[in-house]
Predict the 3D structure of the following.
Amino acid sequence: MSAIPPAAIDIRGLTKFYGHSRGVENVSLTLERGEVLGFLGPNGSGKTTVLRVLVGLISPTSGEVLVEGRSLFDDPRGWRERVGYLPGELGLYSNTSVIDYLCLLARLREIDCSTEIRTLSERIGLRLDARIAGLSKGNKQKVGVIQALMHRPQVLVLDEPTSGLDPIAQEEFARILGERRSEGASIILSSHVLQEVENVADRVVILDRGRVLAVDTVESLRRRIDTEIHLTFAKPISLDTYRSCPGVVEVVGDDTELVIRATVPHTELLRCAAADGVVKVVSHEPTLADVFLSLTRNNRDS
Amino acid sequence: MILEPLVGKTLRDRWRSLVAWSLGIIALVTVQMSVYPTIRDSSADMEGFTESLPEAFQEMFRMEDYTSPAGYLSTELLSFVVPFIFMTLGATWGARSASEEEESGTADVMFSLPIERRDYVVTRWLTASFVLLGEAIVFGVALVIGSSILDMGIAVGHFANASLMMLLAGSASHSLAAVVGTRTGKRSVGLGTTMVALIAGFVVYSLAPLVDFFDAVNPFNPLQWMLGTQPLTTGVDLGYVLLLLLVSALGLVASVHFFDRRDIQV
């Protein structure tokens, strides 16, 4: 199995308007070689717009996309040879078989993908002789996954890739992504399944209303929002002690049971609690879902 | 560059429809030709009848020489029915040339492939031209066979002229529909606009002998270029042929231009 030569993408000030309606505005991102970048955002946040610009399906109103320092629009055909794209709304030729459809795409790519098609279909569990019209939604999605991967692209642009896939296929798909990444492929993955993004993404982009709210690792994003800590004491304590601790945002409860929202580090807070004879500490690590909801709510409130 | 896999796929997908169009053309030619012996046998009565019609009506449907074989076929097949069959076939293929992928949701995968959009449009244009050529040949062969059976005495070259004019009529309307279809991404808009334009052109063409304004603008009317010659008697007008070829070529260039520059719709 040959290693995939790397590629790096630099999106600068990308703006796309559909008439007067904003798709995305001033989006700047980088995708490093061999990196998995997760795209999160509510419906209509602009995720698909960014992905479709990257594949050359739509032109930006302004801004640029550089691939290894050269504009994507200088040689869009050459760029698309290196990209595998799975659209969020997948349409397939229904009046043909899976293998005929995939071979048609391979012939249009002018490469022989037959070995890769067979391997991928066996791994994710798809019959190649089946008629596309008779496939379930999940199996149609598998066809989409194979067509995006079959030419071993350097860059994978995947919009809701596991939508409709059964858990076994999802697991295998994640394994394949891991392999491709270890071979040097860069991956952009948009998904509503936050756990999936959390599991595979090196960094996460959170978009809302066409703007980037955050780009960071999951760990760093977690640190951006408050942790909820439940403290139980054997004897009454003063709430004011905790309100004045560094990083504490909110303290509620009575003098023996407190619920504290605080940012990391919690060193001083825990020192105070120990001095007051705390008997029980329960802390909830924020999930990516918590981060996502917190950032988008704050954005809308502001 | 022609995208050969796409040509094969398109023809495989639509071969049943193309066979149906061919059978329809053959059936029409057969029915019309089978009536001719009756017309010929009652030529005196028919001549009296056609001469009683208004001159403009005779001109509109080429009834000046209704009882001769060439005059009969010109009136019954070439004055309206068969040209509009080819125009409709051309418009149907033109309107879907790029919009079909978008309307069926397959465009995102198709245009994420390393193919040039202009190659895609040119391929669809050439495929449609090939189909129109095939149907024009079917029409010409049906005429030759029917004429031979009925001993009409019309030269094969005249039937080739008739086929050529049908091909050009179909090709010009295909190009118009392709321009609108690729510009808007909507098959219905491409087809609807083209059919309205063709009908408007036909109104101008057919009423030109009666309305001075229409008569003045008719030389610029593509319907005049399509229908205003007598391929079975006087042959084709080279000027009209070139104008129709120009319309087709400009349509191709405009389709490529529009499709290359616009966003692919979801």
